[in-house]
Amino acid sequence: MALLNFRKREEPRTANGDLETFLHGYSIEVMPRTAEKVEDFREILPLGTRVYIAHIDGTPIEDMVATARRIAGEGFDVMPHFPARIIKDAATLENWIAMYQGEAGVKQGLLLAGGVSQPVGDFHCSMQMMETGLFDKAGFTRLHVAGHPEGNRDIDPDGGEANVMDALRWKQAFSERTDAKMAMATQFAFEAAPIVAWAKGLQDAGITLPIHIGIAGPAKLQTLIKFAIACGVGPSLKVLQKRAMDVSKLLLPYEPTEVLSDLAAHKAANPGSNIEQVHFFPLGGIKTNAKWATENGGAAGVPMAAQG
C-alpha cells in the first residue's frame, strides 16, 4: 500500500501566519494500537516531534515499550505516560523506567494520576511518583504533568479548584528545586476564551510552568462528543453541541481551526503568555491530524523517497 505524502503545499489553505508560528514544535499523542496503523511516522511528522504514548489500563508494559522503541528508532522524542494508579509500587515504577531506558533510550515522561478510580497499589497521584526520586536517579531530563483548563471533578468533586491549585503549587515548587524541565500537558477544550483565562489565572497565582495546550484533532462530530463527555470536558463542550444542532454542519468533520487561530492570535499579542505550544489528541486518526497540521502551516514529514 502506498504511503500518503503529506509534504507541505506551496500554497497552504490558510494564510494565518500566527497559526503557523503557533503550530511550530507541536506534539501528538498515540497508543500502541493506533501507532500500528502508521507505516512510518517519518512520512507524516517532522523529525524530532515529541510523541506521547498513552498508557491505557490493561495495556501490557511490553507493548508500551515496544511502541516507544519503534517510534524513537524513527527519529522522534518519545514521552510515555506513567499513570500512578495502575503502577503497583516503587519497584514496578523503577522497572518500567529501566525498560523504557534500556530499550528506547527514554529520558522524559508524562506523570499523571491515570483514568482509573481505584489505585492498584501504593500510588494515587503523580506527586507520589515524583517524590520517589526515581526519575531523577534515572537521569530523566523532562517531566510533564497534567493540566485541566476547565477543572477536574475527579480531583475537585465540588466543581471548584482548591485541590488542583494545591497540587499545581506543589509541582511548581518541585520544578524550582530540581533540574528537570517541566510543563503541563492539558486536557483538550474547544474554546479559546476559557483556556486563556485559566492560563492567566495560573500566572497571577505564581504558577509559571509552561502550558502545552491540549487540542482535539480533526474528527467526526459524534466521535468528538463521545470522547469529550468521557474525558470530562467542561463548558467548552457547548461548541460541539451547538454545531450538532446545525444540520448543515452535522455531517462535516470538526477541525480545530477556530480555537487554534484564536489561541495563536492571543499568543502573538501576548508573547509572555505561559501557553507555549500545541499538544494534539488525534481522535480522528494520527494521519488525519498530521495532514491537517501540515496543511495549516505545520512542518511536514519527510517522504520515503527523500529518506534515502
From TrEMBL:
InterPro entries: FAD-linked_oxidoreductase-like (IPR029041). Keywords: Oxidoreductase. This is Methylenetetrahydrofolate reductase.
